[in-house]
């Protein structure tokens, strides 16, 4: 299978190691991965702010870059959900629809498409898992406490394959961290309070790291941790799954 790696703009600019870890992990699992060099923002910030019409160029560029691949994989639930729900190309609607059906968040791809059963990875630390809203409620990467359904978690399923790791769940396992994209700009005080609440529950569990599938959420939590002088660090799940993987 031929896979295209989609790296969101904030990962490209601020957390390139997440993109590198994603690439290395996929290649070590036997995937043929390409990185389209002309890819840019998926258009989510404009759309979330009510300017969907301004994201048309992003849509056209996305289709140009990612046409012809079997799958498109990204280490970001929010960006994947945006593409799945909003990608349009009036000149090439069939290809746009095919892309929407074949773009996957990393943990979703590993569990649902590659069907990974074991990982030769090691991460000997106490880790708290943050469930990002887009991944959980949009992509259904894990169950939601407000619905009476069997519990499941694709990220947790993968993390349990990592040697030495000790997962510790916060009391409110699917609470929003408060980032919410542009929400953290327009409602700064509310966003920060929500983030502090998330951080406290993880700190109460005496974790060494907080992990998750969205760097945007981890960036928000990391800013709060740093300002509070906390010893807790943040790390993307791709970096854990790729750690010491041979």
From TrEMBL:
A GO molecular function held by the record: oxidoreductase activity
InterPro entries, alphabetized: Cys_rich_dom
Segments forming domain Cysteine-rich: 3-83, 127-221
UniProt GO cellular component terms: cytosol
Name of the protein this chain belongs to: L-lactate dehydrogenase complex protein LldE
Protein's organism: Flavobacterium cutihirudinis
């Amino acid at each position: 299978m031929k896979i295209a790696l989609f790296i969101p703009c904030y990962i490209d600019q601020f957390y390139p190691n997440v993109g590198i870890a994603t690439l290395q992990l996929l290649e070590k699992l036997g995937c043929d991965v390409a990185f389209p060099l002309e890819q840019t923002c998926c258009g989510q910030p404009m759309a979330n702010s009510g300017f969907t019409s301004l994201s048309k160029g992003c849509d056209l560029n996305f289709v140009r870059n990612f046409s012809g691949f079997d799958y498109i994989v990204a280490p970001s639930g929010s960006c994947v959900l945006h593409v799945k729900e909003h990608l349009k190309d009036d000149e090439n609607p069939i290809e746009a629809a095919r892309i929407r059906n074949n773009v996957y968040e990393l943990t979703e791809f590993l569990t649902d498409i590659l069907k990974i059963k074991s990982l030769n990875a090691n991460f000997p630390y106490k880790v708290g898992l943050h469930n990002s809203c887009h991944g959980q409620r949009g992509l259904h990467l894990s169950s939601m406490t407000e619905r009476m359904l069997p519990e499941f978690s694709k990220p947790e399923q993968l993390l349990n394959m990592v040697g030495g790791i000790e997962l510790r769940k916060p009391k409110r396992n699917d609470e929003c961290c408060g980032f919410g994209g542009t929400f953290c700009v327009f409602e700064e005080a509310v966003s920060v309070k929500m983030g502090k609440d998330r951080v406290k529950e993880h700190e109460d569990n005496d974790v060494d790291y907080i992990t998750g599938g969205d760097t945007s959420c981890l960036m928000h939590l990391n800013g709060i941790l740093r300002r509070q002088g906390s010893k807790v660090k943040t790390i993307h799940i791709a970096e854990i799954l790729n750690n010491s993987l041979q």
